Amino acid sequence: MLKNLSIRNFALIDEIELEFGTGLNIITGETGAGKSIIIDALSLILGERANADDVRSGAEKAIVEGTLTLSGNKKVQRLLEASEIEGDDEIIVRREVSRKGQSRAFVNDTPFPVAHLKELGDLLVDLHGQHEHQSLLRPETHIDLLDDFGGLEMLVKNFRAAYHELVNMISELKEIVSRRDALSEKRDLYAFQIKEIDAIGPQPDEIDKLESELKILENAERLYESTAKLYELLYESENSIHDQLVVVRNKLEDLAGIDKVFEPQREECESARAIVDEITRFVQNYSSKIDFNPGRLEEIRERLGALTIIKKKYGGSFAAAIEYREKIGREYSLAQNFEGEIEKLEAAIEGFRLKLSEIAERLSTKRREVAERISKSIVGVLNEIGIDNAKFEAVISNKVDNSEDAGMKPSVKLGEDYYETSEKGFDSVEFYISTNPGEELRPLAKVASGGEISRTMLALKTILAKSDRLPLLVFDEIDVGISGRIAAKVGKSLKSLSGFHQIIAITHLPQIAGSADIHFHVEKIVKGKRAVTRVVRLSEEERILEVAKLLSGESLTKASISGAKELIGTK
Hints:
The chain is about 55% helix and about 20% strand. By secondary structure, it is of the alpha+beta class. Helix 8 packs antiparallel against helix 9 (about 265-290).
């Protein structure tokens, strides 16, 4: 619901603050006083288009701000979360329009895309009159209203879940078919590449090992000569390092016999001799194993050449080439088994489509039963509020889709025919109405404008009140073309409807104004030589006088005051 509305520098309004309440909020005032300006300002924070002409002359910008309670509206919560805006049970929506026509929107002081503001407004307010927030005039909403009225939420939920499951299965099938078509063109290429790579059979880290072995084989003669010379220096020559160390050790041993300080040096020398012996054994052993193998050398060179070709062709590295082989192996295997996979998935889809179609048929049958109840009930209310001879019908239609690709859509299938389907079923629902004798039923969106639309909406809302989730309904000039007895019935209907929704209504009729829970009076005054719209929330006594004026004009009489009290319900 709308708790308050602040309007500054908007058209004839310099600054007003309105505190609305639950139930029926009535706005009255002379023609031209500015009643519709309040609705225009409200529509601005509901996402309607801004106009530079809306900014009051002499002001830099117009500002409209409203505080709305969410009443647990989950759709609003999701929209706010998507925009990273925090909001519990209450939000503050502000719209600013500059003299240049530039517009900005804020929700809870956080910038909010103007393009999304209308979406937010449509989830919170239904505004009837010369404005866009008329959910019942949008045919796409009719199916939801019908389902809510009939209590079909669970059946719709079951269908939606099955529908999305079928969508996923068909998407999977399309992807496999697409891959099959693409892979069929590459299958021969993959077969050749697999054969080429497997013929070489590259192994992880193989090139490093081969290059190391190649280096040794290419330098075998040098290795042999160097190790032989090293062995000679270490051990075999007359003055070998080994023999020299033995001499040094013996001398140190003699010295240590005289002075113990040489003992550590003797031990170090002995350790050095032992190390030289170890190196000598290693060099001798290595030299004995040196392989002069020209055949192996050529084999390695050929292998490295083949591996280099594979590396260059398939990724630039052996790891990439091996990974590529694994990938095309999987693709080739899949290409070999596509038909079986496709047949299996097609069978699963048709089985699931049968389940979906059964749910859709049950849902459609229920909707047709609900449509009859709605039609009868709304005609009765229309007659009560002054639209005699009215006819109303909730038309349910289905569209056959026997195109070549119908089987590749999440369609409902009944018999041999496929039907266009959405997550709400294969039904299209649209409300049709005739408000004059002899006229054919026409889509509700095309009926006459003004008060007739508002009364039609009132009838629909009266019937659908308990199922409609919108917390606020606004009726702009609902009383056009009615008076007397019918006006009283309209007032009674509004009062009844206000038990389910907060209602804001502009009216000229005392019978409707008398039903108000809260009554505002709009008047135009001169302030500083400029016309200004002023809004006053009326006390109980002021309400009586205002309703009396609506009955008799400016000249109040005892009869008009008495009539006003009767309409309001006071003594």
